[in-house]
Amino acid sequence: MRGVKPPRSRRPASPQAAPARPRPPARDATPAAPRHGLARTLSKLGLCSRTEAARWIAAGRVAVDGRIVTDPEFPILQGRHRLALDGAPLADTKRLYLMLNKPRGLVTSAQDERGRDTVYRCFDGAGLPWLAPVGRLDKASEGLLLFSNDPQWAARVTDPVSGPDKTYHVQVDAIPDAALLARMCAGVVAEGEALRAKQVRPLRQGERHAWLEVVLDEGRNRQIRRLLAALGLDVLRLVRVAIGELALGELGKGAWRELSAAEVTALAPAADASAPAAR
Known about the structure:
Blueprint: E1 35-37, H1 38-44, H2 50-58, E2 62-64, E3 67-68, E4 75-77, E5 83-85, E6 88-89, E7 97-102, E8 132-134, E9 142-148, H3 151-157, E10 166-172, H4 178-186, E11 188-190, E12 193-195, E13 199-205, E14 210-216, H5 223-230, E15 235-243, E16 246-247, E17 256-258, H6 261-267
Parallel strand pairs: 9-15
Antiparallel strand pairs: 1-4, 2-3, 2-5, 5-6, 7-9, 7-17, 8-9, 10-14, 10-15, 11-12, 13-14, 15-16
EC number: 5.4.99.-
Catalytic activity: uridine(35) in tRNA(Tyr) = pseudouridine(35) in tRNA(Tyr); uridine(2604) in 23S rRNA = pseudouridine(2604) in 23S rRNA
Enzyme class: isomerase
C-alpha cells in the first residue's frame, strides 16, 4: 500500500499593504482677506461716514481698480483693490482721537433734520478730517464726549461687555435717601427694559436738590434719566465726567483736545496690545 503524501505546506501569503489614501491638497495657511461692501470699506478707512460714502459712490466719484463703481455694496477684499476718489488714490487716513466737553443744548449728530445745532459746531474752523462721535450724549446732557475716525477703536470703547465704565455727576430734584440709592443699583424695569447703575454715591446736597455720582457699565438710551424717573426723581443736570480713567478735568465747555497715545490705548487696548498711533 502506497503511503499518502502529506499535503505541501504553503507559505502564508505576505499581507499586502493597504493602498495609501490620496493626501488632500495643502490648504493655504493665509487667512482670507475680509470682504466688505465698498461704502463700508471707505468708512473703515476713516474717510467719511458710511452714508456719505454711499453718496460719493452713487455720484460716480469712486473708482475700483480704475473703473467707476456706483454700487455701495460692491464687494471689496481688504488690501486687494486700488481705490480712488475723484481720480486721486485713496489710502488709510491717519487716525485721530479727540475728547470734547459737550455743552448742553447741542445734538450729537453730524446733521439734524430739524435744523438744531450739533456738536460739530465746536469744531468749526479747526480743519479736522471726518470724525464720528464715540457713543452719545443727549441734547440736554453735557460733558465728556469722544470722537474718532477709527471705527475699530470706537467699537471697543462702546462695547457693552468689555468697554470702560462711564461716570456721571447728576443733579436731581430731591434729597434721595440710602434706600433709594440702593434701589438704583438693584435696578428697576422701565418700559420692559431692566435699568440699573453699577455704583451710586451722594456728592453734595442743598435744601431741595442733591448731586449724585453715578457709574454705568452699560450704555442704554437715556439710561440715567429713565432709571431716576422710574424712582420718582427728575434730572436737573447730567454731566459725564469720566470714561474709564479719562477724566473731563478742567477742559472748558465747547473746548476739545487730542488724546495721547497712552490715553487711546488705556480706553480700548488693541487686540495685539499695541498702542494705536495718535497724533
